[in-house]
Design brief:
This protein is an alpha/beta fold. It is built from seven helices and ten strands.
Length: 228
């Protein structure tokens, strides 16, 4: 299988000499579903930001889709991000746009032809079970529904990779299970999925690949792993 994400001897050092990541070596292949686990401050969010090129490595190489993210010119970064769907703990929906408009906006900013936008938005909302909420406002939705809208927005460009940073952190356990089940469905459709999480029960029940970080280092990389 071909690697879609590769971190080779990656260090990330912030001001004051704080090492967020140390000698990280990870290869994630096309179609994998990977949980990133570890205590707060272990480096999970930093690792995700490096893949998305929100941060740059201090040392080592981060390759996404075969491209070294550090070597991309500024005008090339948006094209990298079009291949990545991001899901955040706090949803990051635009409160002054409807559900439909929030998802359509992700296509509009990339120049998608108008005739393609409506069918694609309706399709992904159907996949996450919100086909009847197109005209709702984010403030009218429950937390679980808002996260499903965020998932639909991440899916709508048919990304190579879905990155989810604590996607169930603000949700009750049952709703969280539903969100992770949707991520698993997205994975079956072909996207590589990487989820940073503290949700121990979910990780233990799904038995996917688990990469554990501690002190900025990879301390475990286990197929069909558990949280601990």
């Amino acid at each position: 299988m071909s690697a879609v994400i590769c971190l080779a001897n990656v260090w990330k050092t912030f001001s004051g000499g704080v090492h967020a990541l140390r000698e990280v070596n990870i290869q994630i292949n096309k179609g994998e579903f990977v949980f990133l686990v570890g205590p707060s401050g272990a480096g999970k969010s930093t690792l995700i930001k490096l893949i998305y090129r929100e941060e740059m490595p201090s040392q080592g190489r981060v390759l996404v889709g075969g491209k070294d993210v550090a070597s991309l010119r500024p005008r090339e970064v948006p094209f990298l991000r079009r291949r990545i769907g991001m899901v955040f703990q706090d949803y990051k929906l635009l409160p002054d746009k409807t559900v439909y408009e929030n998802i359509a906006f992700a296509l509009e900013v990339t120049g998608t032809p108008r005739r393609q936008i409506q069918p694609r938005v309706r399709h992904v909302l159907g996949l996450v079970g919100l086909g009847g909420r197109l005209r709702s406002w984010p403030g009218e939705l429950s937390g679980g529904e808002q996260q499903r809208v965020a998932l639909a927005r991440a899916m709508v460009r048919d990304p190579l990779i879905i990155l989810a940073d604590e996607p169930t952190g603000n949700l009750d356990p049952d709703t969280g299970r539903g969100i992770v089940s949707l991520l698993e469905d997205i994975n079956r459709l072909g996207s590589t999925v990487v989820v940073a999480t503290h949700a121990q029960e979910l990780v233990n029940s799904m038995r996917k690949r688990v990469v554990e970080l501690a002190g900025g280092r990879v301390v475990r990389d286990q197929e069909r792993g558990a949280y601990r």
